[in-house]
TrEMBL record:
This is Nudix hydrolase domain-containing protein. Belongs to the Nudix hydrolase family. Residues 18-163 form the Nudix hydrolase domain. It comes from Eleusine coracana subsp. coracana. The keyword Zinc does not apply. The keyword Hydrolase applies.
């Protein structure tokens, strides 16, 4: 049984310019790999964590509504815990991505337009119990594997442009974060 409880409802949901505001993250970690070697001699490969969709095929990154009583970073970290059962450090804002939700149309946003703030989350802990574990499976994938399995184009764009561009710069010493790839 999980002691954590997922937030539900829309009474604290943020909206801006007719769009629902969403926060999400691309959880990542490093694992040893005999095929790739970093400059300092440690063998590593970056993996990202995806979860199954509750409404169809393909995989997703954790995301959900940004509420009035939290920062966007807190919302992204909360979604990672609720949906994927991971905790970690938000290390970089990857960008804003607009999309249309087919399932979340309401009085404040009748056309279902959303704007997602997406962050890189360096995973420090995988929980054995989390709020949505009965309906979510998590899968660690390489970036190319994840890109090919993304359910939504905007998430694939966040991965391939936002995350990959940031991570490539950071791993060469120019990304401006404190996560350690070793």
């Amino acid at each position: 049984m999980c002691d954590l409880v997922a937030r539900t409802g829309r009474h604290q949901q943020r909206y801006e310019d007719g769009r629902r505001l969403v926060a999400g993250c691309i959880p990542f970690r490093y694992r040893s790999n005999n095929d790739e070697t970093s400059d300092n001699g440690h063998k590593k490969v970056v993996e990202v964590l995806m979860i199954n969709s509750q409404s169809g095929p393909g995989l997703l990154f954790p995301k959900g509504g940004w509420e009035n009583d939290e920062t966007v970073e807190e919302a992204a970290a909360r979604e990672a815990v609720e949906e994927a059962g991971v905790r970690g450090d938000i290390v970089h804002h990857l960008g804003f991505y607009d999309f249309k939700s087919k399932t979340h149309q309401d009085a404040c946003c009748p056309e279902g337009m959303c704007r997602a703030a997406v962050f890189a989350l360096h995973v420090k802990e995988e929980l054995t119990s989390w709020p949505e574990q009965s309906t979510r499976q998590r899968t660690w994938l390489t970036v190319p594997e994840a890109a090919s399995r993304c359910r939504y184009q905007w998430m694939q764009e966040a991965l391939l442009t936002g995350f990959t561009d940031w991570h490539d710069k950071w791993s060469k010493g120019g990304g401006g974060t404190n996560c350690d790839p070793a």
